[in-house]
DNA sequence: AGGGCGACCTGAGGGC
DNA sequence: TGCCCTCAGGTCGCCC
């Protein structure tokens, strides 16, 4: 489901409800997520939520002692519900809150993850976080990007590589490449500096616009209130394979690149 | 050493 | 209706 804009939308939606709330109970109905939920997660019970932040596509609940790391995988959702809301299929975990609301984790494909860490420096030391690249809207420098992009590797693969920059998944990679007018299969080290500068800017603009729209809703995505995002109305290429380019009317091509569906305009993107 | 790709899951949709 | 195939917003970890 979620790329950076969707996770950020969820974070912003949850923030007012979670900040300073206390987790009074943890109910695990299904612990077989991407990794089995570990017993230590029970340590969150009785702790207050001091901060809700994000690193890449991970949500981080900073408690007065310890941290919960949450990843939504492809199909994960978080909902805030009233106490005693009936459980539905694929509702796997409930965090019961002091004000009798429930933060409920729902994930049909179970590619998501819920992890616990006590370490102060987990952003730097946790095996799942320590190798993540820069945040695209904060610390993604041009020098770093030019260095990373200078590889004999398709530019779309580079852009989607979380070690290069976090948060850009398949939708926004397709969109950013269209806006920058770069063919997704072009090797990074054959692209001019100017074009790479443009691509970085286009990627950032695309993410910012999507956050403003509340994310993209295709099938699964809903925000915390269960409402969809509206960025899909702004999509130029993603999901539009074989339809006319919105700029030049040429039929968009759809190929598979690294086993991900890739849509581009063969005339606009060179 | 770095990058490609299979694997992890369920469900939806299309073709027959 | 049902079976079988493919595909889906992520990403780890194996293998080359």
Explain what you see:
- This protein has 270 residues and is α+β, with helices and mostly antiparallel strands.
- The protein has helices at residues 4-18, 122-125, 142-149, 155-159, 170-179, 193-212, and strands at residues 23-28, 49-55, 58-63, 67-71, 77-82, 91-97, 101-106, 113-117, 253-257, 260-264.
- Strands 1-6-7-5 form a 4-stranded antiparallel β-sheet, with helices on one face. Strands 2-3-4-8 form a 4-stranded antiparallel β-sheet, covered by helices on one side.
- The two termini are 29 Å apart.
- The mean pLDDT is 95.
- It binds a DNA duplex (16 and 16 nucleotides) through helix 5.
Provide a short characterization of the protein structure.
By secondary structure, the chain is an alpha+beta fold.
Strand content: 15-25%
**Mean pLDDT score:** 95
Which spans have pLDDT < 50 for at least 5 consecutive residues?
none
Question: How many helices?
Answer: 6
**What's the assembly state of these chains?**
single chain
Strands of the biggest beta sheet: in what spatial order?
1-6-7-5
Task: Provide the helix percentage.
Answer: 10-25%
Q: Could you state the order of secondary-structure elements as H and E?
A: HEEEEEEEEHHHHHEE
Shape, principal axes of CA atoms? globular
Derived structural class: alpha+beta
Give me the count of strands: 10
Task: Specify Rg, calculated over alpha carbons.
Answer: 20 Å
Between the first and last Cα atoms, what is the distance in angstroms?
A: 29 Å
The largest sheet, given as strand count, sense and whether it forms a barrel, is: 4 strands, antiparallel
């Amino acid at each position: 489901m979620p790329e950076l804009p969707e996770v950020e939308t969820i974070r912003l939606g949850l923030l007012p409800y979670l900040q300073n709330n206390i987790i009074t109970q943890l109910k695990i109905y299904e612990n077989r997520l991407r990794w089995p939920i570990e017993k230590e997660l029970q340590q969150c019970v009785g702790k207050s939520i001091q901060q809700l932040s994000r690193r890449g596509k991970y949500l981080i609940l900073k408690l007065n002692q310890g941290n919960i790391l949450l990843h939504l995988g492809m199909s994960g959702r978080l909902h805030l519900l009233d106490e005693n809301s009936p459980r539905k299929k694929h509702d796997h975990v409930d965090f019961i809150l002091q004000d009798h609301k429930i933060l409920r984790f729902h994930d049909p494909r179970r590619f998501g993850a819920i992890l616990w860490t006590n370490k102060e420096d987990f952003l730097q030391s946790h095996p799942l976080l320590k190798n993540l690249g820069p945040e695209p809207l904060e610390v993604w420098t041009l020098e770093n990007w030019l260095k990373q992009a200078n590889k004999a590797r398709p530019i779309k693969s580079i852009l989607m590589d979380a070690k290069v920059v976090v948060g850009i998944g398949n939708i926004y990679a397709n969109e950013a490449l269209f806006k920058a007018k770069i063919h997704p299969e072009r090797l990074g080290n054959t692209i001019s500096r100017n074009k790479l500068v443009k691509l970085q800017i286009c990627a950032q603009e695309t993410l910012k616009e999507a956050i403003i729209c509340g994310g993209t809703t295709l099938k699964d995505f809903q925000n915390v209130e269960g409402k969809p995002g509206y960025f899909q109305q702004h999509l130029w290429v993603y999901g539009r394979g074989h339809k006319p380019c919105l700029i030049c009317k040429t039929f968009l091509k759809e190929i598979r690149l690294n086993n991900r569906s890739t849509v581009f305009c063969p005339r606009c993107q060179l």
